[in-house]
Structures are given as structure tokens and as C-alpha cells.
Design a protein that fits this description.
The chain has 2 helices and 3 strands. It has helices at about 35-50, 55-75, and strands at about 15-35, 80-95, 95-110.
């Protein structure tokens, strides 16, 4: 039983479904560093202002990877849905960022 995207929510319920059982926390964590080349290109982009596309891509990929890890953990627990999903990130040390995705793995069925 896989967790499909439409069964992942930041809310604590899924309209049209009832929660049968809670399987606990499912999480995904990714720790990424920026390369010297990436930092150089970002610095050049910063000179001209606007969005720093290199960092945006790094952040997007880190969030996606953490999300997929969370889905895999929920699936391994036997869940078909995730509720209360959240993302957090912080800088572990200069140039190294952690992205953490978590939610409650649940088994649901249509109402």
C-alpha cells in the first residue's frame, strides 16, 4: 500500500476518509552542502539581485528528497496516508543545511 500525493496533508484529517489507525511519526531527513562552484555562481547572481536560482534548486531538491524519504517510511509502516505534514530546515554549520519532513502515518478508508 503506497502513500499517494493526494493522501498527504498538512491538516489533521482527510475529507472523505476516516482514520482507522495511527502508525506514528514518519520522517525524512536530508543534509546538503553547497559546493564552492555553486557558492561562486550564487555570489555572482547576488551582485545583480533577484532570485538566487542555484540555491533555490538546492532547496527544492532537498525538500523533495526529504519528502520522498518520509513517504517511504510511512509506506514501510503500512500507511496509506500522512497527516499533519510539516517541513523544517536549519543550518547545521556554515554551508551545510538540514531539511526535515515529518508527519503522522495513518491508515484510512473512505467514509
Amino acid at each position: 500500500m503506497a502513500v499517494e500525493a493526494h493522501m498527504v496533508t498538512t491538516t489533521l484529517d482527510l475529507p472523505g476518509y476516516k482514520i482507522i489507525t495511527s502508525l506514528g511519526l514518519a520522517r525524512g531527513i536530508v543534509v546538503r552542502s553547497r559546493s564552492i562552484i555553486g557558492n561562486t555562481f550564487a555570489a555572482i547572481q547576488a551582485i545583480f539581485g533577484g532570485q538566487i536560482s542555484i540555491y533555490k534548486e538546492l532547496c527544492d531538491q532537498a525538500r523533495q528528497d526529504a519528502y520522498l524519504e518520509m513517504l517511504a517510511e510511512a509506506h514501510a509502516r503500512g500507511a496509506n496516508a500522512l497527516i499533519g505534514v510539516r517541513f523544517e530546515s536549519n543550518e547545521v554549520t556554515s554551508g551545510i543545511t538540514e531539511v526535515f519532513a515529518y508527519g503522522t502515518a495513518v491508515v484510512t478508508e473512505p467514509e
